[in-house]
Design a protein that fits this description.
It is a single chain. It contains four helices and four strands; from the N terminus they run E-E-E-E-H-H-H-H. The protein is elongated and about 70 Å long. It has a four-stranded antiparallel sheet, covered by helices on one side. By secondary structure, it is of the alpha+beta class.
């Protein structure tokens, strides 16, 4: 009887890689992040760049590379947050991703105009 041959299994993802789905992953290298799709780097950003990270999430979903639920899990966000980023991007592009929505982000002039209308 001959020796059993090793089964050729794909190697597990490195500890610095977050698997988004079967074809997408997020690689973490020190303070850099790289989105990889089908083995190709498609987006990179610094860890502290919240706008670029939000765009990465929008890019993955809008391009059809990943589902909202996969992206939310990989980036430790809620699906609602991913949808919110998509909506902001659709309304105002990259600039809108950098602004927090809500009362606290409105300017004093906007607040005065709103209160004057009521």
């Amino acid at each position: 009887m001959s020796a059993q041959q090793a089964l050729a299994l794909p190697s597990p993802a490195a500890s610095n890689t977050v698997v988004i789905n079967a074809r997408c992953s997020l690689r973490i290298e020190a303070d850099q992040r790289v989105i990889v799709v089908a083995g190709l780097p498609v987006h990179h950003y610094r860890a502290e760049d919240a706008v670029a990270e939000a765009y990465a999430m929008v890019f993955l979903v809008e391009s059809g590379f990943a589902q909202q639920t996969d992206v939310a899990r990989a980036f430790a966000r809620s699906v609602r947050t991913v949808r919110r980023y998509q909506g902001r991007y659709a309304q105002g592009g990259m600039g809108a991703l950098g602004r927090e929505e809500g009362l606290a982000s409105r300017s004093t002039t906007d607040l005065r105009e709103t209160s004057a209308q009521h």
